[in-house]
Amino acid sequence: xxxxxxxxxxxxxxxxxxxxxxxxxxxxxxxxxxxxxxxxxxxxxxxxxxxxxxxxxxxxxxxxxxxxxxxxxxxxxxxxxxxxxxxxxxxxxxxxxxxxxxxxxxxxxxxxxxxxxxxxxxxxxxxxxxxxxxxxxxxxxxxxxxxxxxxxxxxxxxxxxxxxxxxxxxxxxxxxxxxxxxxxxxxxxxxxxxxxxxxxxxxxxxxxxxxxxxxxxxxxxxxxxxxxxxxxxxxxxxxxxxxxxxxxxxxxxxxxxxxxxxxxxxxxxxxxxxxxxxxxxxxxxxxxxxxxxxxxxxxxxxxxxxxxxxxxxxxxxxxxxxxxxxxxxxxxxxxxxxxxxxxxxxxxxxxxxxxxxxxxxxxxxxxxxxxxxxxxxxxxxxxxxxxxxxxxxxxxxxxxx
Length: 401
Description:
- By secondary structure, the chain is of the alpha/beta class.
- Helices cover 39% and strands 12% of the residues.
- The strands form three sheets. A six-stranded parallel sheet has the order 1-2-3-4-5-6. A three-stranded antiparallel sheet has the order 7-8-9. The chain has a two-stranded antiparallel sheet with strand order 10-11.
- Helix 8 (224-241) runs parallel beside helix 14.
- The chain is globular, with a radius of gyration of 21 Å.
- The relative contact order is 0.11.
């Protein structure tokens, strides 16, 4: 995950965990990946890929602050170093700076764009505000119109916080009406800072925060039970009306778990550590949720990416997700689907007092338990050579019977 603009952003979303990363970099240093660092990243990243397809993911901050010309340069470098490989690009944006020049560039170069939308205007604008505390919904929708006008492939990323978790169907209907057919829902979970974080100039707790602050979530963080209810309400609508036509990342990934397939999102993988983040200065970190000095692996200008991702520190980081799982989780009937969730969110204690329980455990357990019979049916359909989307017909038939 490349962050060529670092933590710079034109918005000031209330729940953003990345804006505070400004405190970790030199105050007056440019927040822009230099041409030399960009070239080193593109070259080394392509070299590190074993197959014929190479996928770049550009995020921020807000990457469109760099302007179209910067990404023209990136694409030209990709072509220079491709050596016959197919290059794909994905860009995550808040959409507010997109115009027709951007639309033409993204379409011409086959970019997949993720646009951040938290729901209808009233829900989106509760958290996604600009420096003047004005809502960004109208500007984001103008950006979405640019993507649709230029026929740019896009999906939507929705952050689920206390502001919108109580309106799952309103959020879902809005996204479908906006034209999204691939939806990602990201639970917002952050911790209040302790004294150690405040001394570093940080406004949020770090993943390794020590008690007593370790178990205190911010006021805008989603609660586990609410997160589970949010997913279940949308799933019950999706499974009967939209399965096979609308892709929801959590539901697609869950089906993969029931089929025993490898891969899927890192949150629910048994181990992690393969999704590194590269900052604007070339520094490489264990994960974009772990951009702290203690998780810095090196710099792309000095080391090969493969050496960093396969090095002992990063391997240990990835295995710790599995090895630190509490006994309560190891005995859970839906462990195969959940695997304890993201390590960053494991700051609760289990009923028997063991540390390392995910803040969202109640929600994950409720959701995976709820979808179990449906996933079993879809998995059976898949194994028999039929489309899992036929679940809609199965459910319609059972209702009539």
